[in-house]
Design brief:
This protein has 429 residues and is mainly alpha-helical. The chain contains 18 helices and six strands. Strand 4 and strand 5 form a beta hairpin. The longest helix has 23 residues. The N and C termini lie far apart (63 Å). The structure holds carboxymethyl coenzyme *A. The site of carboxymethyl coenzyme *A has 20 residues, from loops.
């Protein structure tokens, strides 16, 4: 195969190298384009831009394939756990028994936040959104571990990673307790990762929360399915911040902010709000579908569509199945699940959605599982953030440890006013 592309600019032919990935996806390397020709490329929203080479996660959006370090998401969802998957993403391999114990012990050792951090929680109003608290507190964590910032005493990356992965769920649970005026519940070393999170969310000083195994498994699955998704908005943000050599905690806090928006992680909250609105209005979903197709309505079918998947999101398939199983097990009937199923059925048979290849994404059914577990709606995106943490850490590590990393610094096409003189205030009209 020819491994260069030829670009004709005003009759001048420029050869650009073609780069091929391990799954045969191809890119034209344009890094020398501006030097050679004076031109840059323009790609609003980066829909066609490869921003890096990465060994972590592979997605084939046309075929609906997602693999972490080569392993299909379906296999991991069936056989693995969130902590194992975190090890896989961050360290590059599934842990053997000894490595898994060491990693789990490190998570347990680092699960309690510095006691002084509790004062920071006091400063937030009780109605503060937990995503705002989460990003602030993740960033604040670096203040309590000066070795993170000191270039001479660089702490072992794995310790930093374990601290972040472990404490994100402690911070998340404390944020929730604060918003409800409830006392903070400390982590319990004997509990595994997800059971410990549920304990910190729902136990009380006078009563231990007894989580059913199916509930723990369902939430662990949600974490696992969110663990990485290559260069999405928040992960690209983490890499961008990391490229300036900012520390891991600052980079992850930026990832939380990027995730918050309703077009990204905030979609899980938006889906539930949409379903609840439809239910309240007495609509069977058809009016909403009509509005979502009308650009002037400003509405979208939340939980549908994806920049990369032009097929059913493989995570949505897994979550939908688990959602049915969990609700049956808990003997819960949820009218919002019925509405979701009706919307899906209507949308996948509607030419508007079919032509645009809009299918349910991971957020379409995850909220119904979280609701069944008792997680309040404002915590949905926080759950996504806990799940995505291994992916952010693995991507941070890839940027940080690659000696060839340059600071991420895109260019632009300027469309503002051309040069003009300064006018003094008296002469301005
Ligand atoms: N409902 C109605 N129309 C839609 C939707 C939707 N959910 N999503 C896309 N479209 C239309 C869009 O109006 C456009 O139509 P046209 O070609 O006529 O102008 C076409 O489909 C292409 O959409 P786009 O906005 O150019 O696609 P994008 O790749 O920029 O956006 C997206 C992807 C996920 C932001 C978008 O599909 C969306 O807003 N979905 C709803 C929000 C959502 O569920 N987000 C979670 C994404 S998955 C989890 C995550 O990664 O965070």
């Amino acid at each position: 195969m020819n491994n260069t592309a030829k670009l004709n600019i005003n009759g001048q032919i420029h050869e650009l190298p073609i780069v091929e990935g391990s799954e045969h996806e191809k890119a034209i390397d344009i890094s020398s384009l501006r030097n050679k020709t004076g031109y840059i490329t323009l790609d609003d929203g980066y829909g066609n831009t490869g921003s890096c080479r990465s060994e972590i996660t592979f997605i084939d959006g046309e075929k609906g394939i997602l693999r972490y370090r080569g392993i299909p998401i379906e296999e991991l969802a069936e056989k693995s756990t969130f902590v194992e998957v975190a090890h896989l993403l961050i360290m590059g391999k599934l842990p053997n028994q000894e490595e898994l114990k060491r990693f789990s012990d490190l998570l347990t050792k680092n699960e309690t936040i510095h006691e002084d951090m509790k004062f920071h929680f006091e400063g937030f109003p009780s109605h503060a959104h937990p995503m705002a608290i989460l990003s602030s507190m993740i960033n604040a964590t670096s203040c309590f571990y000066p070795e993170i910032l000191s270039s001479e005493r660089q702490e072992d990356f794995v310790v930093q990673a374990a601290r972040l992965l472990s404490q994100v769920r402690t911070i998340a649970a404390f944020a929730y307790r604060k918003s409800r005026g409830l006392p903070a519940i400390y982590p319990k070393p004997s509990y595994k990762y997800t059971a410990n999170f549920l304990h910190m969310m729902f136990s009380n000083p006078y009563q231990e929360f007894d989580a059913e195994p199916e509930v723990i498994k369902a939430l662990d699955l949600i974490f696992l399915l969110h663990a990485d998704h290559e260069q999405n908005c928040s992960t690209a943000t983490v890499r961008m911040v990391a490229s300036s050599k900012a520390n891991l905690f600052a980079s992850a806090a930026a990832g939380v902010c990027a995730l918050w928006g309703p077009l990204h992680g905030g979609a899980n909250q938006a889906v539930l709000e949409m379903l609840a609105d439809i239910h309240r209005s007495g609509d069977d979903g058809s009016k909403f579908i009509a509005a979502a197709k009308d650009k002037k309505s400003g509405k979208r079918l939340m939980g549908f569509g994806h920049r990369v998947y032009k097929n059913y999101d493989p995570r949505a398939k897994i979550i939908k199945k688990r959602c049915d199983q969990l609700l049956a097990k808990l003997k819960r009937v949820d009218p919002l699940l019925d509405i979701a199923k009706k919307l899906e059925e209507a949308a996948i048979n509607d030419p508007y959605f079919v032509e645009r290849k809009l299918y349910p994404n991971v957020d379409f059914y995850s909220g119904i599982i979280m609701r069944a577990i008792g997680i309040p709606i404002e915590m949905f995106t926080v759950i996504f953030a806990i799940g995505r943490m291994p992916g952010w850490i693995a991507n941070y590590r890839e940027v940080h440890e690659n000696l060839e990393t340059r600071i991420y610094r895109p260019r632009q096409i300027y469309t503002g006013l051309t040069q003009r003189p300064y006018v003094s205030v008296k002469e301005r009209v």
